[in-house]
Amino acid sequence: MRRERVFLDEKNSDLIAYTRSLSGGDNRPERERMKRILLRAMKHELTERQRDCLSKYYLEGLKMKDIACELHLSKSTVSRHIKSAELKLRKVASYYQR
Questions:
Q1: What is the four-CA torsion angle of 58, 60, 53, 85, rounded to 10 degrees?
Q2: Strands (DSSP E) along the chain, which ranges?
């Protein structure tokens, strides 16, 4: 099955994306819907630490090392927070893509 990258936000298009099957046509309504779903999931499904690490890494473009220094954590802890947040968001996104 062919897949394409679908960006959630035009401003941060290189930072926030999800993948969906190719179906052609305009995907703006679907992007907006998925953006609302993921923002809601970030607020309710992630811990505060996961949310902080994820937003600093993807939205602010900070390196894990810099996030670790800022939050007084080890780099591996920041990496684990980001990875577990991504898994939770992927699970939520896959549920709504069906």
A1: -20
A2: 3-7, 17-21
Question: How many whole angstroms separate alpha carbon 65 and alpha carbon 84?
Answer: 18
Can you say whether the dihedral through the CA atoms of 48, 70, 74, 53 is positive or negative?
positive
User: pLDDT tens digit string along 37-57?
Assistant: 888 888 999 999 999 999 999
Assigned token pair, 93: 């996104």
* Mean pLDDT over each residue of the chain, to the nearest integer: 80
The pLDDT confidence band at residue 80, using thresholds 50, 70 and 90, is: very high
Q: Which fold has domain 3-97?
A: Arc Repressor Mutant, subunit A (1.10.10)
Q: Which residues contact 41 (CB under 8 A, 6 or more apart)?
A: 88, 89, 92, 93
Residue 19, φ and ψ in degrees, nearest 5: -115, 140
Contacts of 71 (CB under 8 A, 6+ apart): 49, 52, 53, 78
